[in-house]
């Protein structure tokens, strides 16, 4: 009985993240549009885009290799697995011990590795520009993410996300400077990893400002749909991660009843709404940075994360 | 067991002179590499069975060679057995690869006699149980590999590489010689006697510094790395694979053997030195790798990075051992040993791939490659596995060892000493940076050489490599995946090594639910490569089937879109230098003193605009160049002694005699 519930809970989690991801993107777009006093596309537009793209033919460049056709599935698989391991509404994930926070970061790293390769496969100038800038951004964002994970893990005494979430929800946490720093660092990393303003512009089609869009320029049809879906999943993953580590209240515990799980799901939706709204406000309020400003921005995240870790080494209570 | 091992080594040694004869025969290379293949695989199986079934037996043997009153002592304990597996797995793969690759070697006589001798020397270093045999084998290993580094002696660059290598190797041996001299002062050269003696803490500290210099220069620790990126790429590719994948591990063995085994209980500041060298080595090594455009040089610099990761693990193990936390020391030590094994696998694989590319195109310069995935699909696939594995990405093996190292770092707030508390987070940050740079570096290596469009005619007309080479590459690629998804097996196999060296073992892994690995406790951290792999495979195939069935599976070929500016010229693609330009701009100005000089001709001039990039190796400029200059200055001054007349020589001798007598008398 218990195992059945666990499997169902894990399955529900996997389909939930997959189903919600386009909605979150649609919501952020809608709020951004409203803030700019535009009406904006309907909330469900991302779903329609995905379905339309999946039905279209793939137009493949003559110079593309087999790897180019496989990569969308690899990216999607890596991102989906990572996203389904972050606790959303409940902590009782059956396979949560499969990978901890470090492994989730590395899984996203695998997805990015292949994405950058895809940018270089066709042999165009824009693909190269995108990949080259993406690895530059990643070379700072990934360590910042890892060190943030270190600081959080050292406070909670575990790198397993359910344990971390449980610890953060308990009274043992208290108010800590290092957690504040880790929160800012993780937010900056999340902005960079999801190609949001001020690091990249998800809506740009001006060639020289693109990073993510330049890498996927040659993709079309179902391949593009999968890559878009993966980016949406990644956004959801980071929002869930911030919610799970820094706003752990209301998450259902491992042995919760069905009603408690439903409540957890509602609270989770609330958190997504709030964080998505904040993201839209932030993006509207700030301008995009020049490419070579990004390292300074991400360097700040790296230093904050390192400082948070160092504080933990210096004193157990900071 | 040790008899089998020694006989196999003897067979390898016997093959060396045979190589001189065989090099003139048309099928000689096949016979020689076949012989090496048999000998190394025998050694590998012997050592593996020793490690798995009789880890605490430690058979030893004494042969009546070497110093007359000492003899040559050999011993096969768990540590030796593990490193024998690493050496001979690499040796087997390299010999198999060479069975196909030898066709690209135009003067086999310069490689064949040295290759089996080199393999034998590495085996003897690992087996030796007295300082004399160890040092003789160590020096023999350096000399034979030097001979193969200068095998293409007509290229000036290779001769320079050989010269610097020889100097650094002598320096390393000198440091080790002094270290053993200090250790043997109270005991004698036999390792068993050294183990039984108890040198003072100060003496041991000096020994550790000397070993760090000696073994570190062989392994390529910054700042003693200068020779490595010159020498490793200069050798033929299968030898490069052995030098990078295996010989650096023999150096790690030397370090572990002396510091963890021969010297008594460690003190915390030893670990501080190792960590302070290991962390920067990892980051600097991979940053250098990112700036290169020669495919084999990228791989050589990335070896430096991985050595840094291994030494960081060893430093952590020393720290925890010194502070009495031996269960964490076991974790850090196992992580380091696992990375030794993993790096031997994927670095050999990558050098084989580079060798296959070199054989097919004659090019090592990435700027002249491109699009090889179309012309050499099988090599490209194996290379892709190697690139993902070395970038420490799941589900491959590189990730597991880095993950374990990170887990050890996360336990370090328990250390009492303040120095370590401040250094370890910084080292953790450096390792995290190194992991990210490694991914960038191998995106570049693979993307520029294998993807895109060919940048030269040789790349456009390349052909798939031969079957032996492919077998060697695919076998290693399979090992990379197996070690990545079933790491528990490998961790358990390392338990006796860790027991001998740090006095404790990691929890038993095989038998845990779903073959998960749990370094400390399940609530703390766990990782399951198998399930990650299966999950990802399942998600990917489900998505593919569902979309192809339900939505669309049609596909059209068309010219590339490229924002509407497609250009038929492959030169518009990003090149290796332009790919790393953003990272060079962010980090390079400080670390490499990088400068970009743009020459823009006036508007009416027909001259092309030029952009020149200047990179400096600050360690070379700041450390090696002044030493070389000082030696040059001193020798110039002493040089006048050569041109005296006989009278003045006699006067000189007389004065010297008087001075000496005075010194003796007083």
Automatic annotation (TrEMBL), chain A:
Pfam families from the UniProt entry: NADHdh
Annotated compartments: Membrane
Membrane topology: Multi-pass membrane protein
Residues passing through the membrane, by range: 12-29, 58-82, 94-114, 135-161, 173-192, 235-252, 258-282, 294-314
Record keywords, A-Z: Membrane, Transmembrane, Transmembrane helix
Domain of life: Bacteria
InterPro entries: ComplexI_Subunit1 (IPR052561), NADH_UbQ_OxRdtase_su1/FPO (IPR001694)
Keyword Kinase: no
Keyword Signal assigned: no
Protein's UniProt name: NADH-quinone oxidoreductase subunit H
Source organism per UniProt: Bradyrhizobium diversitatis
From TrEMBL, chain B:
Annotated transmembrane regions: 28-57, 78-102, 114-141, 162-189, 201-227, 239-256, 268-291, 298-320, 340-360, 381-400, 420-447, 468-491, 527-547, 646-665
Keywords: Cell membrane, Membrane, Oxidoreductase, Transmembrane, Transmembrane helix
Membrane topology: Multi-pass membrane protein
Record has Endoplasmic reticulum as a keyword: no
Domain NADH:quinone oxidoreductase/Mrp antiporter transmembrane: 128-411
Pfam family, one: Proton_antipo_M
InterPro entries for the chain: ComplexI-like_HydComp, NADH_UbQ_OxRdtase, ND/Mrp_TM
Major location category of this protein: membrane
Presence of keyword Transcription regulation: no
Subcellular location: Cell membrane; Membrane
NCBIfam families: PRK06521.1
Protein's UniProt name: Hydrogenase 4 subunit B
Species assigned in the record: Bradyrhizobium diversitatis
Gene: hyfB
């Amino acid at each position: 009985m218990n195992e059945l519930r666990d499997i169902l809970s894990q399955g529900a989690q996997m389909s939930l993240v997959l189903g919600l991801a386009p909605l979150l993107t649609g919501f952020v777009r809608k709020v951004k549009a409203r803030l700019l006093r535009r009406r904006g596309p309907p909330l469900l537009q991302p779903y329609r885009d995905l379905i339309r793209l999946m039905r279209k033919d793939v137009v493949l460049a003559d110079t593309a290799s087999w790897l180019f056709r496989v990569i969308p599935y690899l990216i999607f698989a890596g991102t989906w697995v990572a996203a389904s391991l972050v606790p959303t509404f409940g902590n009782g994930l059956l396979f949560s011990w499969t990978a901890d926070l470090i492994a989730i970061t590395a899984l996203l790293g695998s997805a990015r590795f292949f994405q950058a390769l895809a940018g270089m496969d066709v042999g165009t100038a824009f693909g190269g520009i995108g990949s080259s800038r993406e690895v530059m951004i990643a070379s700072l964002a990934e360590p910042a993410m890892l060190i943030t994970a270190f600081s959080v893990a050292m406070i909670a005494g575990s790198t397993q996300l359910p344990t971390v979430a449980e610890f953060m929800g308990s009274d043992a946490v208290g108010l800590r400077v290092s957690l504040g720093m880790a929160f800012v660092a993780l937010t900056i990393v999340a902005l960079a990893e999801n190609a949001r303003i001020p690091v990249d512009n998800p809506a740009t089609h001006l060639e020289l400002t693109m990073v993510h869009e330049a890498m996927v320029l040659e993709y079309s049809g179902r391949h593009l749909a999968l890559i878009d879906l993966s980016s949406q999943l990644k956004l959801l993953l980071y929002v869930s991660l911030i919610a799970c580590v820094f706003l752990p209240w209301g998450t259902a515990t491992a042995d919760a009843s069905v009603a408690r799980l439903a409540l957890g799901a509602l609270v989770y939706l609330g958190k997504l709404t709030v964080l998505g709204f904040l993201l839209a406000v932030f993006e509207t309020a700030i301008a995009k940075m020049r490419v070579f400003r990004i390292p300074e921005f991400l360097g700040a995240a790296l230093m904050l994360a390192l400082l948070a870790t160092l504080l933990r080494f210096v004193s157990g209570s900071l | 067991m040790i008899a089998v091992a020694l006989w196999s080594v003897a067979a390898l040694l016997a093959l060396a002179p045979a190589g001189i004869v065989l090099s003139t025969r048309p099928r000689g290379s096949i016979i020689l590499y076949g012989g090496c293949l048999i000998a190394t695989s025998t050694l590998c199986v012997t050592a593996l069975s020793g490690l798995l079934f009789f880890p605490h037996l430690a058979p030893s043997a004494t042969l009546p060679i070497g110093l007359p009153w000492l003899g040559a002592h050999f011993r096969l304990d768990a540590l030796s057995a593990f490193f024998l597996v690493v050496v001979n797995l690499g040796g087997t793969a390299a010999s198999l690869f060479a069975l196909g690759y030898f066709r690209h070697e135009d003067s086999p006589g310069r490689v064949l006699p040295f290759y089996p001798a080199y393999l034998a020397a590495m085996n003897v270093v690992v087996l030796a149980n007295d300082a004399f045999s160890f040092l003789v084998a160590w020096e023999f290993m350096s000399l034979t590999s030097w001979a193969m580094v200068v095998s293409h002696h007509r290229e000036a660059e290779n001769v320079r590489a050989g010269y610097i290598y020889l100097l650094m190797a002598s320096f390393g041996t000198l440091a080790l010689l002094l270290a053993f001299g200090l250790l043997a002062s109270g005991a004698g050269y036999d390792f068993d006697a050294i183990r039984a003696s108890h040198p003072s803490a100060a003496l041991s500290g000096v020994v550790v510094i000397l070993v760090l210099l000696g073994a570190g220069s062989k392994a390529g620790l910054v700042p003693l790395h200068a020779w490595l990126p010159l020498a490793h790429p200069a050798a033929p590719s299968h030898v490069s694979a052995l030098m990078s994948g295996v010989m650096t591990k023999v150096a790690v063995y030397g370090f572990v053997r002396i510091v963890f085994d021969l010297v008594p209980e460690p003190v915390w500041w030893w670990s501080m030195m190792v960590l302070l060298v290991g962390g920067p080595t990892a980051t600097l090594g991979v940053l250098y790798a990112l700036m290169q455009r020669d495919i084999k040089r990228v791989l050589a610099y990335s070896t430096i990075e991985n050595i840094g990761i291994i030494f960081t693990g060893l430093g952590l193990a020393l720290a925890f051992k010194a502070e009495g936390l031996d269960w964490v020391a076991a974790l850090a030590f196992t992580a380091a040993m696992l990375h030794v094994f993993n790096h031997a696998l994927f670095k050999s694989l990558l050098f084989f791939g580079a060798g296959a590319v070199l054989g097919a195109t004659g090019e090592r310069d990435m700027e002249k490659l491109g699009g090889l995935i179309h012309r050499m699909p099988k090599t490209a696939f194996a290379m892709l596995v190697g690139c993902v594995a070395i970038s420490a990405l799941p589900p491959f093996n590189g990730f597991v060892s880095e993950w374990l190292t990170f887990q050890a770092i996360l336990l370090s707030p328990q250390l009492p000493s303040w120095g370590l508390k401040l250094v370890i987070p910084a080292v953790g940050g450096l390792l995290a940076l190194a992991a990210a740079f490694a991914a960038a570096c191998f995106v570049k290596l693979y993307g520029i050489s294998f993807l895109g469009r060919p940048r030269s005619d040789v790349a456009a007309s390349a052909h798939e490599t031969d079957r032996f080479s492919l077998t060697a590459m695919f076998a290693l690629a399979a090992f990379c995946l197996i070690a990545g998804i079933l790491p528990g097996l490998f961790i358990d196999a390392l338990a006796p090594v860790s027991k001998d060296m740090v006095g404790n073992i990691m929890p038993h892994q095989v038998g845990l639910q779903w073959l998960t690995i749990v370094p400390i406790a399940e609530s703390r951290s766990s990782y399951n490569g198998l399930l990650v792999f299966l999950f990802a495979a399942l998600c990917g195939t489900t998505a593919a089937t569902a979309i192809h069935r339900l939505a669309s599976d049609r596909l059209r070929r068309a010219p590339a879109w490229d924002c509407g500016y497609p250009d038929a010229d492959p030169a518009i693609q990003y090149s290796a230098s332009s790919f790393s330009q953003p990272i060079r701009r962010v980090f390079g100005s400080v670390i490499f003193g990088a400068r970009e000089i743009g020459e823009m001709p006036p508007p009416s001039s027909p001259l092309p605009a030029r952009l020149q990039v200047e990179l400096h190796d600050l360690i070379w400029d700041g450390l090696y160049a002044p030493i070389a200059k000082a030696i040059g200055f001193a020798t110039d001054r002493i040089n006048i002694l050569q041109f005296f007349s006989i009278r003045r020589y006699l006067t000189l001798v007389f004065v010297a005699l008087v001075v000496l007598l005075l010194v003796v008398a007083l």
